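Subject: Sanity check before I submit

Could someone independently write out the structure tokens for this chain? I want to compare against mine line by line before I put it in a report. The sequence has 235 residues.
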Amino acid sequence: MSDADVERLFARMRWGSETEQCCPNCGVMQAHYRREKRKQWRCAKCGCDFSVTSKTPFHKHKLPLREILEIIMHFESGAKGRSLLEVSRLVGCWPKTVQGIFGKLREALVKTMDLTPLQGTVHMDGAYFCGKPRKPNRRMKMPKDALKVRFGKKAPTHPDKPWIDAGMTKKNWEKRRNKRVVISLCESGNIKEGARRVIALVCRAENENHVTRIARKFIKPRAIIMTDECSAYNT
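---
Independent answer below. Compare away.
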């Protein structure tokens, strides 16, 4: 595909037409004046210049439209995601460029996510991110009252250094404290249809309080919820 073909494709995806455009400034839908050298249109009503990517996540982009489409294709085709270095080698651009476009795509997905409650059979599970605490090089001796301090049955002996009471190094304690869980809700369809819709949410912990609030807000009553054996989903 040439850049002109890609531009026509984006125009069909955005406005549903190759001959008429909708001005992002005044909202008039008609055949506007074409500025071929700039690959833009000038609104026939307000005189605003706009392109096929104006007022979108790719507003004022510097890459050719063909490279943007190619990066979107690799982002979409990876079943388990694609690494930045892999896509940068396939497209022939810097990894930072791919990282920026991937971030724009994820931002657009989050902003346009359908948050209406799910129904039918809903699969619910959590996945943890933000790194895994590594085993320290030196052996740590667990304090005798570490479990009592952790569950609030005894006052901490080192309030300024809580990682000592937890029997951990400071680096591992910081990683575990900043850990987040992504809870996904997947509405299942028929066997041939697959998943109908997915909602992904970031939470501080996969506990009964957070899970119950999410289920009551994003799942309709009388739905069948499929989970694992985690005690957070008992309620």
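---
OP: Matches mine. For the report I'm noting this point. The beta strands are 21-22, 29-30, 33-35, 40-42, 49-50, 121-129, 180-188, 195-203, 224-226.
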